[in-house]
Amino acid sequence: AGGGRAALRACGVHNVCRLLTRRAHGFYARDAGVAHRKNLGLLRKIMCQESTKFKNVWTTHSASPIAYERGRIYMDNYQCCISSIAQEPRILYQKSKCAKSEKIEDALLLECPLGEMLPSPSDYKASLIVLTVQNWLLRLSADSGEVLEKVYLAGSCCKFFRYLSWDTPQEVMIVKSAQNKLPAAARQAGIQQSVLFYLAVFQVLPLSFIGMLEINKKIFGNSVTDVAVSNGILIVMYSMGLVRLYNFKAILEQFMEQPFELGQEFNWNGQVGVVGKYPFGLPCNIKITDTPPLLFEASSLENAFQIGGYPWHYIITPNKKKHKGVFHICSLKDNALAKNGIQDMKCCSLEPDWIYFHPDMSGRIIHVGPNLIKVLKLKEVKNHADQMEIAEDFTIVANRENCVKNTVTVTASGRVVKKRFTSLDDDPEQETFKIVDYEDELDLLSTVAVTQIGADGRAHLDFHCNEHGNLLKSIPLKESWDVTYSHEVYFDKDLVLHIEQKPNRRFSCHVYQMVCDTAKDDD
Q1: Average per-residue pLDDT in the chain?
Q2: Could you report the per-residue pLDDT of 212-223, keeping only the tens digit for each?
Q3: Predicted local distance difference test score (pLDDT) of residue 386
Q4: Is 346 left (phi over 0), alpha (psi -120 to 50) or beta?
Q5: Which long-range CB contacts under 8 A does 388-391 form with residues at least 24 apart?
Q6: What is the pTM of this model?
Q7: Are residues 129 and 137 in contact, defined by beta-carbon separation less than 8 angstroms?
Q8: Domain positions in the chain
Q9: How confident is the model at residue 274 (pLDDT cuts 50, 70, 90)?
């Protein structure tokens, strides 16, 4: 506190808000993270200079999907790892081709938490958590591919674990099974299957087993179609568009029958084995015997449901097909629709617009249409502090010509007939937004816009100021962009990666790196 007062006196600042702003901008050299913030600020300025270019330094092709995580490119079902940080991408490790029984179904990158003592030196380096088709959970070194830990999941309860996700990022991990479905013959014989999904819960670094539970239709209902866990909330989705939220932490505490640790010998329901070892796997030690208290429920088209903003709001689409593309923004406290809370771009397009809460934690909302991006904010209604309204913060508009065209035809009698029509909002011949992303370290909003020119599609990646939306930089992508196939674009500080799928399940990866044109600066 004394140091803070001294800083105030030294710089002549007598206002706390101004002091905090100056701290955020890195004015005080002894503050933690100041050097890092300054370096990122310099990188942003350099990157947005007119003389700075992004050069395509490397391209590769693969017969299997390509993945990217924090400076590492994974190919051949994670058997090959390539560093994209070097001046030219280089192989970190290359494993021999694995058998089908060892195929990796899903993966998560695990990074070391700051300021914590960990049991093993390998825990301080990045690692990759992977899930194999045979229900093994492996922790691999991100730099060498070495197996650091392995846990067998299945046991006798479930044979089909397929999905990895974070409950709390880099802290609590969820391993989810595929939906249990009886064979047709069993269903015809009248055999009932009540367990729909299994969820295994782990604390990471050090990797420890919290528990396994089943999602049972006897508890949650017959029409459950999917489940997810996020930020301590169990989300249950139903076939009629209903979404229900439950307190996941309370479920773990209330229905835990017995805690277990990995490597512990156990005698459980007549089975004797070691937790996490083959062939026993993990015990299902969380038994939900009664419907947990309901936190919240909402009905939304295709179960689309998001929570965010401040104060808390949620976004849904009314549960009728005619409302597709219409979004309602409501208060989580009392379900009240915010003023101007119905967002409808009235798009006439093949692909729908989409909406989500801004990942920069500002509480804003991003609404993306074919030719328009709206960044919206929540604010108090004037003279009504308890009511919120949706206001436009800024917009980004695609660079396109007038879409109205005239065609002239001549009938057999020689009469001239003029037809006037309006093309689709996502007409490939007009510039259309395909991807919107946020680079948190540089605080930039990135957009990818595509225009089809003849048989080729041309795309450019634009960087916008996240605060005001003004265009700072535009990078043309050299390769053709086929709008009929899937694309991913990653912008990671001074690196741009474009992963695309091509016909016949061929995949390509194009790497661009920042290059400063010093000759132009000297001129």
Answers
A1: 87
A2: 999 999 999 999
A3: 83
A4: left
A5: 388/311, 388/313, 388/331, 388/338, 388/339, 389/338, 389/339, 389/340, 389/341, 390/329, 390/338, 390/339, 390/340, 390/341, 390/343, 390/365, 391/340
A6: 0.85
A7: yes
A8: 12-48
A9: very high
